[in-house]
Structures are given as C-alpha cells and as structure tokens.
From TrEMBL:
Locations listed in the record: Cell membrane
GO molecular function: pentosyltransferase activity
Lineage, uppermost ranks: Bacteria, Bacillati, Actinomycetota, Actinomycetes, Propionibacteriales
InterPro entries (alphabetical): LipidA_mod_glycosyltrf_83 (IPR050297)
GO BP terms, alphabetized: lipopolysaccharide biosynthetic process
PANTHER family listed in its UniProt record: MANNOSYLTRANSFERASE YKCB-RELATED, MEMBRANE PROTEIN
Keyword Magnesium: no
Keyword annotations: Cell membrane, Glycosyltransferase, Membrane, Transferase, Transmembrane, Transmembrane helix
Topological relation to the membrane, as annotated: Multi-pass membrane protein
Domain of life: Bacteria
Protein name, entry field: 4-amino-4-deoxy-L-arabinose transferase
Organism: Actinopolymorpha singaporensis
Sequence intervals crossing the membrane: 21-43, 101-134, 201-221, 233-251, 292-312, 324-341, 347-366, 373-394
C-alpha cells in the first residue's frame, strides 16, 4: 500500500510540472547559480579591462575610498553600485574586486529569477525559464561586467513576483480563506516596495520598470482589487517614504529639485524618438534571448494577446489575469524605454525574463501530455547552445578589448610620468603628483592612470585646473581629441613635452603632449 501511495504522489508531482523527489528544487537552483558563475569566469578573459560605464562606477568608488578623482560621474547615476564597489576596493584594490561585485549581483538576480519562476510556474518550468534567460546573448554579454543592469532586473523580478502573490496568494491555491489569508497577502505589497527601492538605488532607470509593473498590475486586476489590499498599500507607502527620503534630500541639495536626479537620468538616456523602439523591434527576439529563448518569448507575446482577448470577451481562464500582467509589464517597459532612451538589450532584461515566463507556461500548456519532453528539450537546448553563444559573444568583444588595450597602455605611461605605478588590468595607479589628462575616454584613462580627466569642451571653455600640468592624449584613430598642432598653439610660450606611444591596440600609435602650468580661466580659441 505504501508503494502505491508513493507512486501516486510522484505521479501528482509529475503532472504538476514538479521535479523528481530525488532531486530537490534547491539543487536545481544551485545548479543555475553555479552555471552563472561559470559563465562569468569563462568570459572574464574576453573583457580584461573595465569599459566606459564600469570605469565610471569604479572610479567613483575609489574616489570615496581614497579621495582620487572620479570621471564623468553625474547626478543621473545611482549610488548603489559604487557603494558596493567601495566595499570591494576596501578589501582589495583591483579590477577583479569590482568584477566580483558584478558576479554577486548576477547571482542575486538569478536566485530571484529562480525564486519567482519556480513560485509561479512550478520547479521544472521555473528552472527551464531561468536557464533560457541565462543562455541569451544579452545576458551573456553583460554577466562578466561591473554594471547595474542584471542586478536591477533581478530585483524588479522579485517585485513582480510579490505583486502577483499579493493578488493570487500561493502558487497553488490554498484551502484556507478569510481574514488571515487576506492579511498574509497584504504583506506582499510592502515586500514589492522593498525590491523596488533596492532596484531604484542601484539604477535610477529602474523607475521605468517600476512604473511598468504598477501600470500592468492596475490594468490586470483593477483598482478595486488593490484598494482591497489597503493595509499593504499603506505599508508600502510608508516604506517608500522612509526609503526615498535620503534620495530626495540629496537630489534637492545637488540639483535644486527633488526630482532632479530622476530627470537627469531620463535625459542621459540619449532618446532617439522612435529610433530606440525600432532598435528593440529589430532585436526581437533572437538578439535579446537567443534562438531558443526567442521562440519562447514570441510564444509569451502570443499568450498575452490571447489572454487579453479572452478577458475582453469575459471568457477568461484562471491564469489569464496573471499572463496579462506579466506580458503587459514587459511590453510597457520596452515601449517606454524605446521612446525615452537609445535601445540596448541590457535596458530591458526584465522584459526578457517576464516574456520568457509567459512563454514557458503557454508552451507547456500547448504541449499537454508532452510537456515534460518539451521542457527537457528547452533546458537541453539552452545549456547546449550556451558555449556557442558565449564564444560568439567573446569574439564580438575582440574589437572592444583591443581599443581598451590602447587606453591601458597610455594610462600606464601617464602613471609613470606622474610618479605612480599602474597595475595593468589587476589594479590602478596612485600618482604621487597631481596630473590632468584631456581625453575622449575619460573614465577608462582616469581609472587606470589615477589622474583627473577633462573633456575637449572643458578645454574650450577654460575649465582646466590652473597651474597644473595638463596632458593631451592623442591617438591615430581616437575620438574627441585635439591635433598635436592645436595643442602646441594652445601652449603658447609654455613648454610641451611629447611622448610617443607605441601602437598598442586598435587606436593605433599615440602621443602624450604634456603642457606646463596653465593660466587660470583662459578660454582656448578654436
């Protein structure tokens, strides 16, 4: 009899889309996280140097730690990532330290992806969804970097899951009803606000995702359903008021407006009108999620349209409201960011995850009795194509790395001239003398040289520090730079020391032209 009961229990688990009892869900989650760490480690040699945005955050963290200059930091950037970088650099001053922060954020994100996906779809479907997201070229491209995008997407995925739980309760409908269960649901609303706060302080651009989730939640369940959660709404409002108070104070002090930093973040997105949205349309779905994930995302879109149609005709299925919420939030985020910023895959990682959720659910439903076979094929395909996609991503990074190699070599020479010692890709310089370098690659050169940086616009407006030697970095194939002849005219009667740089990397041969002390507030002509 006990064997029969065990067989029936296993059968029920199988029909629910669960994983075999011999392999608990946590083991599969650990497997996803181990695979994430393996991807991070495998791609590190392809991106050994910090890129533009990475260097901005890392240089700000170092500035807080040592007082060294930062580069191109503005009020549009949230303080969360440099705060984490500050802790990492306090432990060890190196590129590897801040890159480990990126790894930890990726692990957090995929832990939250697994938590949300398995909670909504069941263990088997949830793990498959997480694997599909991980295998996408967009995620593989950004996993090895010290950036905010993946961590922000994970936190917003946590917020989306909490909103669903607030309206639906558990993934499997509970037998218990009444005030106790309603109160339990109310607690999920402040939890969603907590995830949203974390995402906001990590990246101000997360506000677009927060608004997309809020809009989709109101449309899917209606205002009355949320007013019924009034206790939770009050708790969320209190949490947001307390959590946002430091930001509002800082924004008022820095920009003169409580919404100044958010407004600056919107302006920094370089909007292209419909151009950003068209970019996402051209990317969809393969360039965002790969061949397997692309098919699943497309299925998720179809599922959202069918669910909306059934709801409009008042013939809904139990899962239709959830599907509309997930798909509408994903689409609203893509549309809003496509209109407000230039299109990049990393900006819409949350949409990739949400559409993948919807797609896995509907494909398993359509497969019926063959759902387990389909899920196994999707998981195997995601894992099997991951090395190929990673190889293609690594090859695509060759030109980027070659350019950064030129910048690191030039920064090493700057450090030597300023009495410092550069740590190549494993550290940074600490000059013993004050140095200023004019370059079109401010964050990268500033990070690796330890010097203050200035742009061509600052030269033209006379905003360079007075009485300090200024070095002009000029490459054969560089951007935003003054020709050597123009530098000599700017120097007037001051001495100019020229150091020829070898042709390292794709920027070609370079020159470092160092001018003696500059007069105060003397605008440059031309």
């Amino acid at each position: 009899m006990s064997q029969i009961l065990k067989s029936q229990s296993a059968l029920r688990t199988s029909r629910a889309g669960g994983l075999p009892r011999t392999l608990p869900t946590w083991a599969f989650v650990v497997g996803v996280l181990v695979l994430t760490a393996a991807v991070w480690a495998a791609l590190q040699p392809s991106v050994p140097y910090l890129g533009h945005d990475e260097a901005v955050y890392a240089a700000k963290a170092r500035s807080w730690l040592t007082g060294a200059p930062s580069a191109q930091w503005g009020p549009h950037r949230a303080p969360g990532l440099p705060a984490l970088g500050f802790v990492a650099l306090a432990v060890h001053e190196s590129v590897a330290s801040v890159r480990v922060v990126g790894l930890l954020l990726a692990l957090l994100a995929f832990a939250l992806f697994c938590w949300a996906a398995t909670g909504l779809l069941g263990p088997a479907r949830g793990i498959v969804a997480a694997l599909l997201v991980l295998s996408g070229p967009g995620f593989l491209r950004r996993i090895p970097e010290f950036l905010t995008d993946i961590g922000t997407a994970g936190l917003l995925a946590g917020a989306a899951y909490c909103l669903l739980r607030a309206q639906e309760g558990g993934a499997v409908p509970a037998r218990r009803a009444g005030p106790h269960r309603a109160g339990g649901r109310d607690r999920w609303v402040p939890a969603a606000a907590g995830f949203a706060l974390g995402a906001f302080y990590l990246r101000y651009g997360a506000l677009a995702g927060i608004l997309a989730l809020a809009l989709a939640a109101v449309v899917a369940w209606g205002p009355r359903a949320w007013l019924a959660r009034w206790r939770g709404l009050l708790g969320a409002a209190a949490l947001l008021a307390v959590g946002l108070a430091p930001h509002l104070v800082a924004a008022e002090r820095v920009t003169g407006s409580r919404v100044g930093m958010v407004r600056a973040s919107v302006g920094a997105g370089h909007p292209e009108g419909l151009g950003g949205l068209l970019t996402y349309v051209r990317m969809f779905p393969v360039k965002l999620a790969g061949p397997w994930g692309g098919v699943v995302m497309a299925a998720g879109l179809v599922a959202g349209m069918l669910a909306a149609w059934r709801l409009a005709r008042r013939r809904p299925r139990p899962e239709d409201t959830r599907t509309v919420f997930v798909v509408l939030a994903a689409v609203a985020l893509v549309v809003s960011l496509g209109l407000a910023a230039h299109g990049e895959p990393r900006f819409v990682f949350l949409s990739v995850f949400l559409l993948t959720l919807a797609g896995v659910a509907v494909l398993a439903e359509w497969a019926g009795a063959r759902a387990r076979l389909l899920l196994g094929a999707l998981a195997a395909g995601a894992v099997a194509t991951m090395p190929v996609t990673g190889l293609l991503v690594a090859r695509g990074l060759h030109d980027v790395t070659s350019q950064r190699k030129s910048l690191v070599a030039a920064a090493a020479e700057l450090a030597v001239q300023s009495g410092g010692v550069v740590g190549h890709s494993t550290g940074f310089a600490v000059p013993t003398r004050r140095c200023v370098v004019v370059t079109g690659y401010q964050p990268e050169v500033g990070w690796y040289s330890g010097c203050a940086t200035a742009s061509l616009e600052q030269v033209r407006s006379g905003e360079l520090p007075p009485n300090a030697p200024v070095s002009y970095l000029v490459f054969a194939r560089g951007r935003d730079q003054l020709p050597p002849a123009r530098v000599r005219r700017l120097a007037a009667d001051r001495s100019v020391r020229v150091v020829e740089l070898p042709a390292v990397g794709s920027l070609g041969a370079g020159r470092l032209l160092t001018v003696g002390g500059t007069p105060s507030r003397t605008p440059a002509r031309g």
